[in-house]
Amino acid sequence: MGETTQAPPPSTAEAGPSTGTAAEGSKKQPVVIICIGMAGSGKTTFMQRLNSHLHSRNTPPYILNLDPAVSHMPYSANIDIRDTVDYKEVMKQYNLGPNGGILTALNLFTTKFDQVLGYVEKRAEDVEYILVDTPGQIEIFTWSASGAIITDAIASSLPTVVAYVVDTPRTTAPATFMSNMLYACSILYKTRLPFIIVFNKTDIQPHDFAIDWMKDFEAYQAALNDSGRNEHGESSYMNSLMSSMCLVLEEFYNNLRAVGVSAMTGEGMRGFFEAVEEARQEYERDYKPELDRLASERAAKTEADKKAQLERLMKDMNVSDQSAGGSSRRRGGGGGGDNPFGPYPMNEREDRYYDEEGADDIDEEEQDAIRRQEEEEEEAAHAEELGALDVDEPEIGGMPRSGPNGSRGEAWPRPV
Ligand SMILES: Nc1nc2c(ncn2[C@@H]2O[C@H](COP(=O)(O)OP(=O)(O)OP(=O)(O)O)[C@@H](O)[C@H]2O)c(=O)[nH]1
Ligand SMILES: [Mg+2]
């Protein structure tokens, strides 16, 4: 069944295990394929088909199951949400219905998704494809915060593609086709990821009609006209709405690729993997640079925040660059180069009491204390020259002459 195909270039297979030299950029990252689709569209069966197809090519994928409610899985997943949360237990404990239980289970799982991503990233060296199955109720994944968090987390780490699985036999009516396309459109614009529409179950219903409708507005219009007239031959309100929407969606159709497959028989796998390869290139071309731009914007903002905080701190301490350079201080030395607080050593911060401008504000007593302090310091400096500071000096009045780091601030209480 799984037809032999060399969809992705053979270089990937070669580059995989053989290149241990980590030549930058030579090893392709694996592509993550997230399968999304309406309930019963065949996501899980499609996952199984991809799995067996990739095994037949000797490139087994890494599989994540995010559907907590699946009862039978035809493949074994490397990471399975059911191993972490039991959605039935969640239903009981939180008093929820089935959909609420599934959503809450997914939310709980999302809180640990950084760990999951860690595992995925570790295995990214050894695999070419990472497959992700999503819950049956599409809105649980596509319209929930956790779905968005998971998708964004994966997509910011690895090339990611959305495979939107459509139940082709159930889309033959123009109205259902249109609602499926609208849904696909909303997912595309929400995730902004490269998108592949996978018309599944082509063993029952070939998908050519859908491709015609997507490419040719008039073909869709004709189908609408055939299907939706009332007994008087008038077009219904629904039909006019559909035909307007079809026009709107033209732009959307241009932005995606559509393939037909049968998850049951394996038909169309080659076309699908070709589309995946194209989508990967689109990710590298459009999505990645945008992602990098956002990341560098974030980094620049963090840097600017840090700088602003530092400036605020300096302002609070009244050590702006201008005052440091311009004021006439008694001691201008002190090598401000590496000192984030300005050109004076930190233990001379009290020097601002000596500022001529500020001196008037200090009372006599305070000035005396400062003078005494200064004398002590000059003595110490002199002693240092003579190497006298190597000797343990007795404490004066219970106060050590200097603090553990030689800091005057610690050695002397601030004058009151
Ligand atoms: N004939 C045919 N049947 C298919 C195909 N793919 C899936 N099915 C059938 O469609 C039904 C639903 O398939 P699933 O794979 O469970 O669909 P799903 O989207 O995972 O379903 P939920 O997770 O419950 O939403 C099953 O009975 C499958 O056997 C296909 O390509 N051809
Ligand atoms: Mg399923």
UniProtKB/TrEMBL annotation:
InterPro entries: Gpn, Gpn1/Npa3/XAB1, P-loop_NTPase. Its EC number is 3.6.5.-. The keyword Mitochondrion does not apply. Transmembrane segments: none annotated. Keywords: Cytoplasm, GTP-binding, Hydrolase, Nucleotide-binding, Phosphoprotein. One of its GO terms (cellular component) is cytoplasm. The keyword Nucleotide-binding applies. Pfam families: ATP_bind_1. Its main location: cytoplasm. It is found in: Cytoplasm; Nucleus. Small GTPase required for proper nuclear import of RNA polymerase II (RNAPII). May act at an RNAP assembly step prior to nuclear import. Belongs to the GPN-loop GTPase family. Residues 368-385 have a biased composition (Basic and acidic residues). It is an enzyme of class 3 (hydrolase). One of its GO terms (molecular function) is GTP binding. Binds to RNA polymerase II. It comes from Kwoniella bestiolae CBS 10118. Residues 1-25, 315-416 are annotated as: Disordered. This is GPN-loop GTPase. Residues 353-367 have a biased composition (Acidic residues).
